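Last lecture ended with a question: if I hand you only a sequence, what can you say about the shape of the protein? Today we answer it with a concrete record. The protein is DUF4157 domain-containing protein. Below, first the input exactly as provided, then the predicted structure, then a couple of comments.
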Amino acid sequence: MLSAMPTWHAVRSTLTWINGTSLAAVALAAATRTPLVRGPGGVFVAGGYRLRVPRQKCFTVGTVVFTKRTADWLLDPERADLLAHETRHVGQYAVLGPFFFPLYFAACGWSYLVTGGYGARNFFERHAGLAAGGYRELPLRPWATRLRVRAASSPNRRSPGTPSPH
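The predicted structure:
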């Protein structure tokens, strides 16, 4: 008998297989000879990933969380927050499918442009939990701060609750 999986986990997992991102992850694991271990919630952990790219300790493709450490390291209860962070990315893959890749890299570019860091203003990392993923808040670069202040004080900007002039 199959063990029951919460509905969202089953849907999320099914969507990543249908949209091809989990298949891409399994292909990457096979190509890099990275063994897969079943983790919680329909997620797999590929421990011992050896390529230098990406630089992070962990990254996710489809339903597979890759780590440069062992799978046991990531599955240790002490790293439950990090695994939860990576698992939130699984949900993002479920919704966006292969569009996740260019959108994620665009978000990295935006974050780097306005802060000098790839994660601080990256929507996907913020949604997954910055601190849990090992990212930290960074201040906006001076030009971005000036632009933000200018936009907030624009005379064309209506205060909340103000009716539209049209």
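Comments.
1. The first strand starts at residue 36 and ends at 38.
2. Helices lie at 7-18, 21-31, 71-75, 80-96, 100-115, 123-128, 142-152.
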